[in-house]
Design brief:
The complex is a heterodimer of chains A (203) and B (137). In chain A, 28% of the residues lie in helices and 34% in strands. Chain A has 203 residues and is α/β, with parallel strands linked by helices. Chain A has a single domain (10-202), classed as Rossmann fold (3-Layer(aba) Sandwich). In chain A, the strands form two sheets. Chain A has a six-stranded mixed β-sheet with strand order 3-2-4-5-9-8. In chain A, strands 1-7-6 form a three-stranded antiparallel β-sheet, with helices on one face. In chain A, helix 4 packs antiparallel against helix 5 (79-89) and helix 5 packs across helix 6 (112-122). The radius of gyration of chain B is 14 Å and the shape is globular. Classes of the chains: A alpha/beta (203), B mainly beta (137).
Chain lengths: 203, 137
């Protein structure tokens, strides 16, 4: 029997990564604190090991799916309950102020109202020098398939397809800006696959 | 080597390299040596060693003086402190990693601000181990 061929990662240049890892802003003598919301990635770990760095891998997709299911199946679930579920999902960040969040596609697993609650739960864990990286869309009709990401260097990302599963939501930059409190999309770059690569800053 | 049918509850202190293919619960200290958790190894323990290679399952904190490698069959849930951490394609990790050139020389995991089920203990010791219990499964 033939074995299933391994899915090979591909790479693309990112114009936003240099801003994300702008060392002039980050080097203040304290370790860089990075939260990875996707699965742990060998490229990213190798890249970050050049810095004095703490990486917290949360891999939050399964939590998002479980929370979405609870919201769908519950007749009356209030914002406070959803907020508590997100706080529980973020317990690994307890006591940590994160400088860089690698959100990747995670915004697109939640509907706008729920995304706002997630970012509300995350807000206390963000440092004053916070930056975030993620993906939105320019055109909401663009189908987006699941991918995982890694950072090869300060200008190059690796991506790996996760089958043909589509992301349940596709948010525009304005939807993400509407959901965020205290952080905003600073820059966006449209990619060939329809993803809008975004950089978030505080304020 | 701890074989695949062996379960150890307690503290392991070793001055030689160790391969775990069985199950260990407690703490593992290999001050200047390498620990390999084999593909069938299941470790629910805090680990302190010079180098650690994980092909099996580890649930606990890992401190390495030099390097931690999580191979394609490895699965780690816990906090890692090491100057170098390598995650091979397919390897799974959830937790935090403190890394970089300045990390890993003190041998203590700075996890005071992290939620971890297993707080690190001062486990470096030359004393002979009398607390380990070996149980054949």
């Amino acid at each position: 029997m033939l074995s299933k061929p391994a899915i090979q990662p591909s790479c693309f240049n990112s114009r936003l990564l240099p801003d994300l890892f702008d060392l002039k802003q980050l080097e203040e003598g304290t370790p860089i604190r990075v939260a990875e919301f996707g699965p742990a990635n060998g490229d990213t770990i190798k890249f970050l090991s050049q810095f004095n760095c703490r990486l917290v891998v949360i891999d939050i997709k399964e939590d998002f799916i479980q929370i979405n299911n609870k919201i769908e199946n519950a007749e009356d679930i209030g914002d406070e309950q959803i907020l508590e579920m997100f706080k529980a999902a973020l317990r690994q960040l307890s006591g940590t102020q994160v400088d860089i969040c690698l959100f990747w596609d995670m915004f697109n697993y939640l509907e706008p109202r729920v995304l706002g609650l997630f970012l509300q739960a995350l807000a206390p864990h963000l440092s004053t020098r916070f930056r975030g990286h993620g993906f939105a869309v320019l055109n909401k009709g663009t189908p987006l398939h699941e991918q995982t990401y890694g950072i090869i260097n300060s200008e190059l990302l690796s991506t790996q397809s996760q089958g043909r599963g589509e992301l349940p939501h596709r948010h525009s930059q304005s939807v993400i800006n509407g959901a965020t409190q205290g952080i905003a999309v600073r820059q966006g770059v449209l990619r060939e696959d329809g993803r809008l690569e975004i950089l978030l800053h505080k304020g | 080597m701890i074989g695949s049918t062996v379960k150890i509850l307690g503290e392991i202190i070793s001055d030689e390299n160790l391969v775990i293919e069985g199950e260990v619960e407690g703490t593992i200290t290999l001050k200047d040596n390498e620990l390999i958790v084999g593909p069938s190894g299941r470790v629910h323990a805090n680990i302190n060693a010079k180098n650690v290679k994980i092909d099996g399952l580890v649930d606990g904190d890992v401190v390495a003086k030099e390097k931690v490698v999580i191979s394609k069959s490895g699965n780690v849930r816990g906090n890692i402190l090491a100057p170098r951490v390598i995650l091979e394609d397919g390897g799974r990790f959830k937790g935090s990693i403190d890394m970089g050139p300045a990390v890993g020389t003190s041998g203590e995991l700075p996890i005071g601000d992290l939620n971890t089920s297993k707080a690190p203990k001062p486990i470096l010791s030359e004393a002979p181990d009398t607390s380990a219990v070996v149980k054949r499964l």
